[in-house]
Amino acid sequence: MGTVYRTRARPRDVAALAAATLATGASFGAITIAYGLPNWLPSLMSIVVFAGGAQFLAVGLLAAGNPLAAVFAGLLLNARHLPFGLAVADTLGPRWRDRLIGSHLMTDEVVAFTLAEETPQARRRTYWLVAVALVISWNVGTVLGVLLGGVTGDPDTFGLDAAFPAALLALILPSLKDRETRLVALTGAALAVLLTPVLPAGLPVLAALLGLLVLLRPRRPAPATPEESPPSSHQLSGPAAPSSGRN
Questions:
Q1: Does residue 53 contact residue 78 with C-beta atoms inside 8 Å?
Q2: What interhelical angle do 108-115 and 81-92 show, nearest 10?
């Protein structure tokens, strides 16, 4: 689960990713305003936090009056950045300035494009290219969403509320080819839906992590293949002696 699918950073791919990020950022800005939160909050979060899905979850929990849960949820969702950081540490170089800025701009997409490159120089160039493109498009999208949300008063008017779920679905579709991943995802989704009526806003998403428990279930041993099946008693006894033809 959480596999980073590698692809080369071609200009058209980076441009398409930036456009999708802009639309998702607009969705975040508009939804935050629809929650009744201050106009300055989405832009501040997008600059200081820059965490994508964690920001959506955080504003939902803030609007529900659960600031501590918002912090915990953000840390939990971004825990995957620890192994990502180890994977690209050499790319960012030894200087603390580059590492601090680079770690702040690190996203799943940035790591995926970076690891697809073969040389250290190409990796470094790709990392900063994709990271800068995404942080700019996300923040521009956030501002547009705030302005749009303030004008329309309801982000559903333009369907922006569907932009983030659609983006997440597009990201996880390749992972669903794996049977175990499908089972975990479906179990987590079912738990989130069932707990939505009884838990505060945002917490059902965290409860969906309980879907990982299905990985602890006992597994049936795989059936033996013909090559691996134990020999029969007839095979152990060796070839039969030829008949002499006499009674």
A1: no
A2: 50
Q: With beta carbons less than 8 A apart as the criterion, state whether 32 and 149 touch.
A: yes
Q: Supply 46's token pair.
A: 């997008």
> If phi over 0 gives left and psi between -120 and 50 gives alpha, with beta otherwise, what is residue 220?
beta
Instruction: Name the residue type at position 94.
Output: P
* Angle, alpha carbons 171-173-174 (nearest 5°): 90
CB 148 within 8 A of CB 15: no
Question: Dmax of the chain from CA atoms?
Answer: 105
Q: What residue type is 129 in one-letter code?
A: L
Q: Which two tokens stand for residue 158?
A: 């333009």
Both tokens of 131, joined, read 């990271």
CA 44, CA 221: separation in Å to the nearest integer? Answer: 52
Q: What is the pLDDT of residues 183-231, one digit of tens each?
A: 888 888 888 888 888 876 666 766 777 777 877 777 666 555 555 555 5
Count CB neighbours of 26 within 10 A.
26
How many whole angstroms separate alpha carbon 194 and alpha carbon 17? 33
Q: What distance, in Å, lies between the first and last C-alpha atoms of the chain?
A: 69
Q: What is the SS3 assignment for 241?
A: coil
| Residue range 48-77, pLDDT digits in tens | 989 887 888 788 778 877 788 778 877 877
Residue 197 phi, psi (nearest 5): -70, -20
State the CB neighbour count (10 A cutoff) for residue 218: 4
What is the residue type of 8?
R
